[in-house]
Structure formats: C-alpha cells, structure tokens
Design a protein that fits this description.
Blueprint: E1 7-11, H1 16-27, E2 31-36, H2 39-47, E3 53-56, H3 62-75, E4 81-84, H4 100-127, E5 133-139, H5 150-172, E6 178-184, H6 203-215, E7 220-221, H7 225-235, H8 237-247
Parallel strand pairs: 1-2, 1-4, 2-3, 4-5, 5-6, 6-7
Length: 250
C-alpha cells in the first residue's frame, strides 16, 4: 500500500493512537479526515495539521453516521482509506458489583456494531476509488482476555471474527479493498488509563509499525507484545491468558 497521496478517514482521532496516526499520515502527504465525538478538541487538533479536516460524530449514533457519510460525499468524495480506530472500555472485575451488562452494551455498540455499520456504509464509496483500503484496530485480547477489562475483551474478539468474515467475503467477490487488522498491544494512551501496567507501548511506536506493515502489505499487524502474545496463544492458550493478566495485574 502506498502510504502517501490518500484521503484517509480516522475514527477515534481526537486522542491516543488515532491522533498520532492523523499527525503522521498528514505529514506523509495524505489528506486526513479526523472523526471523534469532542468537537472542540477535534477542531484544535485538526487546525494544527495542514490540509486536515475534522468532523464531530458519535459513531454509535446511526443518525450521526448518516450525516458523516453525506458530509464525506460532499467534501471528500475521493476518500479511499477508512481507519476504524475508535473504542471504549471499562476497567473492572466480573462479579464485583459492577453493572457488567450496562458496560457490555456500550462497548459492543461502539467497538463492534459501529464497525459493522461503518464498513457497510463506506465500502461502496471505497470500492469506487483507486487503491482502497480498510484498517481495523483490534487488540491482543482477541487471543486471550484481559479479565480487568472483560466485556471489552469480548467485543474485540467479536470484531476480530468479523474482520475474518469480511476478508473472506471481499476475496470471494473480488473486491479491490485491502483489509488490514491492527492487533494493538496495551498502549500508553488516555484510553488505557484505567489499566495500571509498566508494559504499555508508546502510541508512536505502534503507529510507526502500522505504517511499515501497510507499506509491505502485511495484513495482520501485531506490534510489540501482540506478536509475542499471538505466538504464546498458538503454543499454549493458558500461557497466553497468564501473559495478558500478569501485565494488567489481574
């Protein structure tokens, strides 16, 4: 994949890895569309990046996604890359009195259902453009759950499965869209602030690895500890589970 000269929409672009990705990709000569819920933060960050657009949207709200799609058609119809990076989590332990069902509903809606919605809405637009690509951020917890973020782990496992289904179907219908999965390690961002660990990767490191993998057309991208976890999971799932939960202090 050529990582310059694209028009790239990034969800969850207001903070963390999404913001770092927006900065790096804009510096590489891409037109970046930053999407997140916080309109003021998004505006400030986008103004610092030449040629970057911002659109405030709650991707869990179907009506707001309607507005986003219409806006893209009118303002960036050349869009050829969709980077689904937004997510939400709750750090807690099962059976500790926390309303796990409430957490799961929100996490599933943001982390999984919105990804299904966005891919179905944007795929026809992407397929009409040169060099189309879809990038989806999952997590190392697709191999073994973090029991301090239990329902989040389940949503990412669902998303990982959906990526596999999409990849199979895109190949089956001979779609030009290339589908990349970024299996993120634990990253030092506001998103993971509730997880106390000394093993957090720098977001800049993860995004640098993402760009290298995109250039090499490596479709399963496992930066840092995600690769080690994948190898452990293949060898011994119980060992993989212990690795995850040792890092998060479960």
């Amino acid at each position: 994949m050529n990582i310059s000269g694209n028009t790239i929409l990034i969800t969850g672009a207001g903070t963390g890895m999404g913001l770092i990705a927006a900065k790096v990709l804009a510096a590489r000569g891409n037109r970046v569309i930053m999407v997140a819920r916080d309109a003021e933060r998004l505006r400030r960050e986008a103004e610092a990046l030449p040629g970057t657009l911002a659109y405030a949207c709650d991707i869990a709200d179907a009506g707001q996604v309607d507005g986003l799609l219409d806006w893209v058609r009118g303002n960036a119809p050349e869009l050829n890359v969709l980077f689904l990076n937004a997510g939400v989590t709750h750090t807690y332990r099962l059976f500790d009195g926390t309303d796990a069902a409430r957490n799961a509903r929100l996490e599933m809606l943001v982390n999984f259902v919105s990804a299904v919605d966005l891919t179905h809405r944007f795929l026809p637009l992407l397929e009409s453009r040169p060099n189309p690509a879809l990038i989806v951020t999952t997590s190392g917890v697709v191999y073994a759950p973090d029991t301090t973020n239990p329902t989040y782990s389940a949503t990412k496992a669902a998303l990982h499965s959906y990526v596999q289904s999409m990849r199979y179907r895109l190949k089956q219908v001979d779609s030009p869209v290339r589908l990349f999965e970024l299996v993120s390690p634990l990253v030092d961002t506001p998103f993971a602030s509730g997880v106390k660990s000394d093993a957090k990767a720098k977001p800049e490191t993860v995004i640098a690895e993402l760009l290298r993998a995109l250039e090499e057309d490596t479709f399963d991208i496992r930066p840092g500890s995600s690769q080690a976890l994948y190898e452990a999971w293949r060898a011994d799932p119980e060992k993989a589970a212990a690795m995850v939960n040792e890092v998060t202090g479960a």
